[in-house]
């Protein structure tokens, strides 16, 4: 099962949903993302949020369109996205994609990236027009050349040890980097596939397109 979550980020950062319109995908709306989905002709199976970013008329429209609407108070201890992910994490999905989580407020962007670390055992990625963001525990991973020209590796924990990159323009062998290091920013695959591995820490991978290709 695939689960796609759409948050309330600016529409200009959203990729087209057309390639993702498959029957086996379960769509989840978060706050204004519910309206974004409905306007795209997609009826989410479940929706979460305090809906403080939409008008009363828009909320009434959403309520006429959806049965499973989980409305929360605006004063709460979690963001709408975290509430949605709490539920999604229990569904045992094969892959979870989050759209509408970038652009706009930087605090929400940073919070959403940290949610990837909270749910690191889940197969989650944040996707926008230009980037795909994933977070990884120690191990060996394969990366395919897929139209994202740049691949960056950013430490999320204080230290990441044993980083090895193969099939990349700038290879590494058993390298240690600390939080704040930019050593692994803007690498590129030189083969159809590459691998990255590391032995300790938490590592974020960001795959990015050139700006003119994305927008």
From TrEMBL:
Cited InterPro entries: Thi_PPkinase (IPR006282), Thiamin_PyroPKinase_B1-bd (IPR007373), TPK (IPR053149), TPK_B1-bd_sf (IPR036371), TPK_catalytic (IPR007371), TPK_catalytic_sf (IPR036759)
Highest taxon of source: Bacteria
Domain Thiamin pyrophosphokinase thiamin-binding: 139-204
GO BP of this protein: thiamine metabolic process
E.C. number(s) listed in UniProt: 2.7.6.2
Enzyme class: transferase
Cross-referenced Pfam families: TPK_B1_binding, TPK_catalytic
GO MF annotations in UniProt: ATP binding; kinase activity; thiamine diphosphokinase activity
Entries under SUPFAM superfamilies matching the protein: Thiamin pyrophosphokinase, catalytic domain, Thiamin pyrophosphokinase, substrate-binding domain
Record's keyword terms, sorted: ATP-binding, Kinase, Nucleotide-binding, Transferase
NCBIfam families named in the record: thi_PPkinase (TIGR01378)
PANTHER family: THIAMINE PYROPHOSPHOKINASE
Protein name: Thiamine diphosphokinase
Origin species: Anoxybacteroides rupiense
